[in-house]
């Protein structure tokens, strides 16, 4: 036994020696780094909907570049750090592919990193553990090997570097040739959009540019005014409430035909409620959609946001008292700026820890406290909910877990039943909060209206694409179809019956929420301004159906059928009798 054990020791030592040789061999490290750099490109060859030629260019051109670049140092670990930006983008891209299944890192994805609070990030990352652990392990191993490379006494041989440089230059030349062919044969092809990591780097630059412009918003918008004036008698008491939901898709509302009772509160208010059956958002991201709702820029160039104020300012100018209550955390976005225009401002999560939670029920208390102080006059309240933002089961109390089981172990298709149950519970909570707000307003027995829509919807593993969450570079039907509701009080209907009649007559007309909310709210409140467009007001006889547009990653307003949606999405629009495009 001792001899056997003694015989094993040399074998073990020999194995360790070979292992060390492999992991300190600069030639092996060279190829490891090339594989790390090109891995996302190879994955995207199979995930992207671009032409075969574009996908070939996306592999051959970067492969030639990486293989060539790593020959410029005798120790590839040195070039690893020179090219670290690309490794970082690669890791980000792999997580994105795990989350959405396609598309390069978008501008909005970089901006979402800046505007997502730690609590949201933790909730999301905890359910992407497989992808996160993989990239940390894989590229973390690359960092370790770069240190091994730099500390090793070995170097790449001159002959090895010469050979790799020769074939890599050939690959670069082939890639550039195919790139030229691509440019001249495909009109839609753009290097900054279709070749990774060029597109990721370009988008990062755009994200930085937008962040800088947004940081200067107070200065660029300081001189803006709506020159808004009231068109009604000051003595007429009026209350208007705009409620902006979060991640609420219409298909899970029983008001829209869902087979579960997710809207018991709204059903009790149907007499004064108008439900818009064919409503879509123009963006699947909060940081774009909500500012458009609150400022009316959905009907103009998106970048006009940097120079104008929100709807609250228009009401201030028209002599209204204004209040803004949000259950979202401040993130230095346009939403914060527009909300802060109000005379009374409450961000409920200012008093909650970064990782803390706050139920939307707290918003009911805010509205009640404000209405308890109401003694007539004109009042606007804007409410921003946290609604159905993932992680769903944290959006309602355990007593409100109507659909069970709702304990989601991880965000995977095998747990779709639990995810849907938890999501539907969030819709019931949104319904409860909205119904409570409407009833508080109704109890005042004055001319009043409450408007509700959501910023965007959500994917919940609905088909074979296995899409989950929102804010993907390419939207889906479920991310775009949202609820849009308008409730008017009996007093309002008696005072302005024509406007209520117009609201009802447009219930089945295709509308874009980001276009109509601003103008409809001004029209309901009788506020005049040159920025008001009657053809975009749902309560106006001049209302006209408009072409459906989507604000893409580069802030361009493109036709709905030009934003990359797939056949599954077109089929859903057709199935539900919705206008597409």
Written account of the structure:
The chain is an alpha/beta fold and 581 residues long. It folds into two domains: 2-212, no CATH class; 242-539, Alkaline Phosphatase, subunit A, CATH 3.40.720.10. The chain has helices at 2-24, 26-47, 52-69, 76-82, 84-100, 107-115, 118-125, 129-151, 158-185, 191-194, 198-215, 217-220, 264-267, 286-295, 311-317, 334-339, 361-372, 416-442, 477-480, 490-495, 497-505, 513-525, 567-575, and strands at residues 229-230, 238-245, 273-275, 279-280, 321-326, 344-347, 378-384, 447-454, 459-460, 468-469, 484-488, 511-512, 527-528, 549-551, 557-559. The strands form five sheets. The protein has a seven-stranded mixed β-sheet with strand order 3-11-8-2-7-5-6, with helices on both faces. Helix 2 (26-47) packs antiparallel against helix 3 (52-69), helix 2 (26-47) packs antiparallel against helix 8 and helix 17 (361-372) packs parallel to helix 18. The chain is elongated, with a radius of gyration of 28 Å.
């Amino acid at each position: 036994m001792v001899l056997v054990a003694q015989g094993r020791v040399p074998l073990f030592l020999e194995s360790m020696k070979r292992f060390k040789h492999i992991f300190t061999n600069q030639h092996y490290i060279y190829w490891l780094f090339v594989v790390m750099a090109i891995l996302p490109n190879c994955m995207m060859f199979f995930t992207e909907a671009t032409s075969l030629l574009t996908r070939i260019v996306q592999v051959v051109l970067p492969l030639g570049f990486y293989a060539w670049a790593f020959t410029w140092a005798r120790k590839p670990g040195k070039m690893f750090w020179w090219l670290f930006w690309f490794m970082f983008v690669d890791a980000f891209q792999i997580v994105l592919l795990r989350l959405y299944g396609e598309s390069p890192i978008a501008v909005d994805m970089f901006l979402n990193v800046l505007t997502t609070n730690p609590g949201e990030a933790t909730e999301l990352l905890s359910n992407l553990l497989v992808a996160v652990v993989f990239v940390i392990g894989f590229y973390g191993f690359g960092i370790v090997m770069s240190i091994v490379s730099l500390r090793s006494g070995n170097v790449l041989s001159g002959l090895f570097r010469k050979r790799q440089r020769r074939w890599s230059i050939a690959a670069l030349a082939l890639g550039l040739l195919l790139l030229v062919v691509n440019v001249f044969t495909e009109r839609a092809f753009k290097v900054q959009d279709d070749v990774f990591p060029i597109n990721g780097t370009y988008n990062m630059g755009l994200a930085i540019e937008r962040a800088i412009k947004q940081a200067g918003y107070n200065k660029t918008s300081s001189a803006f005014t709506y020159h808004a004036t009231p068109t009604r008698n000051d003595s007429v008491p009026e209350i208007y409430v705009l409620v902006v939901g979060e991640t609420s898709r219409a298909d899970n509302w029983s008001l829209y035909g869902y087979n579960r009772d997710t809207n018991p509160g709204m059903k009790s208010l149907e007499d004064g409620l108008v439900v818009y059956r064919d409503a879509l958002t123009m963006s699947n991201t909060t940081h774009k959609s909500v500012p458009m709702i609150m400022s009316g820029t959905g009907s103009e160039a998106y970048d006009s946001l940097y120079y104008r104020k929100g709807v609250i300012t228009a009401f201030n100018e028209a002599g209204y008292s204004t209040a803004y209550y949000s259950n979202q955390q401040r993130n230095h976005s346009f939403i914060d700026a527009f909300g802060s225009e109000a005379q009374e401002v409450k961000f409920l999560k200012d008093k909650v820890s970064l990782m803390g939670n706050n139920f939307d029920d707290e918003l009911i208390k805010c509205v009640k406290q404000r209405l308890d102080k109401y003694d007539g006059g004109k009042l606007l309240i804007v409410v921003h909910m946290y609604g159905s933002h993932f992680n769903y089961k944290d959006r309602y109390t355990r007593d409100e877990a109507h659909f069970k089981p709702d304990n989601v172990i991880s965000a995977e298709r095998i747990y779709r039943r639990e995810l849907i149950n938890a999501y539907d519970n969030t819709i019931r909570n949104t319904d409860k909060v909205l119904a409570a707000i409407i009833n508080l307003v109704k109890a005042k027995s004055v001319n009043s209206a409450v408007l509700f829509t959501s910023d965007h919807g959500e994917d919940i593993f609905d088909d074979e694409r296995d899409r989950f969450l929102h804010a993907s570079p390419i939207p889906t039907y479920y991310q775009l179809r949202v609820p849009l509701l308008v409730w008017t009080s009996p007093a309002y209907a008696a005072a302005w019956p024509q406007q209520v009649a117009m609201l009802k007559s447009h219930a089945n007309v295709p509308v874009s929420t980001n276009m109509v909310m601003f103008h409809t709210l001004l029209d309901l409140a009788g506020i005049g301004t040159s920025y008001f467009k009657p053809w975009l007001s749902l309560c106006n006889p001049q209302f006209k159906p408009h072409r459906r547009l989507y604000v893409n990653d580069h802030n361009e307003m493109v036709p709905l059928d030009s934003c990359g949606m797939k056949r599954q999405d077109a089929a859903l629009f057709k199935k539900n009798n919705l206008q597409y495009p």
